């Protein structure tokens, strides 16, 4: 018998009471989605910018390696997207469109089609996610409703910059991935 | 060594023990505060518990559904009945890929299977990429906590370690400086690894996808740079539906560290073009635990660590005192199922205060199961000698101040004991406890006054 069969038949052999899968009810929702979302991002050590603030910030940057795969800011790239992510080790900034944001925790959903390269939001030194302010949902329940049964090979929630507190519980930003997260709320 | 003996060793460094205790309590407090900002918190715990009950009652069907969908998505699925088989599967893939060095993100399962020493014996360099795990790996230690692997170390020790291993400045203890030194060191490892190993937080039967949560982004950094991703998953990590993730992701990080969500929550469904994902489904004692009706619930655990942070024994005895891969209250009910003899002192490393069950996001009745294990262990020892449980009880209660000074006297003493005495090294863990708030009168006194 293969291990697969052994494991499955061992489980089948255990007498268990059947237990029903519960429905997930609707919970009361926050009203002020934008404010709560902004607070959440700040709590996660990210920053929220308006389009104008973002453009000013971009203009203030010196010579930087930038890749924008955002449909809203298509002309900001200073280098081309390579096919091998190893070539992005010195990338300064990636600009990516998010699909929607979750107010309760600041999580932003992105899929492979937004990222182009799965490594992009991780290997970049700094990350900007562009988000439509109309695309905010109150909690993770509505978030999964929005995702629905859509199929993407890879999807993720990003809620802040890379961080760790593994040395004496002191929070340090920029453990491995992006050292900062800016969310441009349009 | 038994838990009390190990605990005494931990308590030798008084100030560190006190720091450990207070720091974990701080994390517990953060969890309390954030949970109170979610009005439906208790409903979420109930839902999570019911979903997991349903999973355990249909585990076979869900595993089959999960496998079918994962295969359809192009994921290669392997089954391992025990640690040995799990390790052999991983090694075989690495050999096929001609891979001499791997990066690995946090996976308690691979710790449980002792994958690192096995791969190293077979000539493969293993680099743990979670900062805390890298620190303990440098020291040749296992993690002392499932969420905070290096919580038993002070920054001075880490500074010295990094000075030796990463040539950081001697005496520079700044956490930011040290973290960024590790970042540079690990970046090189990420760029060089052809295979990356991760654990799995949740596997979704309905879609065949699996979810990995980190704050550092280390799992993704490894996986997306490598050609092959090996994900190691205990069979109990299944959840039925995608929307169940909404419930669990709301609970996990809040319970673990008091943050609203981990910063990266990655859903792996299909390999990227030209790459491979291998998923290893591991039993290693889980079906045996499923068959123990009284202890079945322990398989609902989502490894948030909250029961450790709140446990008065864990906080004051340290993760290593348990001698098991998963320490703390949940470890004390999982480990005896793996090896009753080796871990027989663990169910006694508890005050049965029930705080673990109170914070558990999936509502495992941890303290009741601890009590059940005590019964089992006592039974298993039978007439054999002085009965192990007695010996254990002696080990624990041998001369602890808190137990010698009993009753009324204790309540007076507690108010006046200085920390230096409570955390004194001649104190074994029973004495090392930060003593509880003392009631002004005993229940008996109160009862007499009010009811008689
Ligand atoms: S038993 Fe509960 S509290 Fe403890 S780690 Fe598991 S899920 Fe968290």
Describe the secondary-structure layout.
The complex is a heterodimer of chains A (186) and B (452).
Chain A lengths: L2 H10 L20 H11 L3 E3 L1 H10 L5 E3 L24 E5 L2 E3 L5 E4 H4 L4 H4 L2 E6 L4 E2 L2 H8 L6 E5 L4 E2 L7 E2 L6 E6 L1
Parallel strand pairs in A: 1-11, 2-3, 3-6, 4-7, 6-11
Antiparallel strand pairs in A: 4-5, 5-8, 9-10
Chain B lengths: L2 H8 L3 H22 L5 H17 L1 H14 L3 E5 L2 H14 L4 E4 L3 H5 L2 H7 L3 E4 L2 H8 L16 H12 L8 H18 L2 E4 L3 E3 L4 E6 L3 H8 L2 E7 L3 E2 L4 H14 L6 E5 L7 E7 L3 H6 L14 H5 L1 H6 L10 H11 L16 H5 L6 H16 L6 H10 L3 H4 L2 H10 L2 H4 L6 H4 L10 H9 L1
Parallel strand pairs in B: 1-10, 2-3, 2-4, 4-7, 5-8, 7-10
Antiparallel strand pairs in B: 5-6, 6-9
Helix pairs in contact in B: 2-12, 3-12, 9-10, 16-18
Bound molecules: iron/sulfur cluster.
What is the name of the CATH topology of the largest domain in chain B?
Answer: Rossmann fold
Report the radius of gyration of chain A as a whole number of Å. 20 Å
What share of residues of chain A is helical? 25-40%
Find the structural class of chain A using helix and strand composition: alpha/beta
Tell me which protein chains meet in the greatest interface and how many residues each side has: A-B, 72 and 89 residues
How many distinct beta strands of chain B?
A: 10
Name the helicity range of chain B: 40-55%
Number of helices of chain A: 6
Summed over residues and divided by their number, the pLDDT of chain B gives a mean of 85
* CATH topology name of chain A: Rossmann fold
Mean pLDDT metric of chain A? 94
Q: Low-confidence stretches of chain A at least 5 residues in length (pLDDT < 50)?
A: none
**How many domains would you count in the coordinates of chain A?**
1
Highest-level CATH class of the largest domain in chain B: Alpha Beta
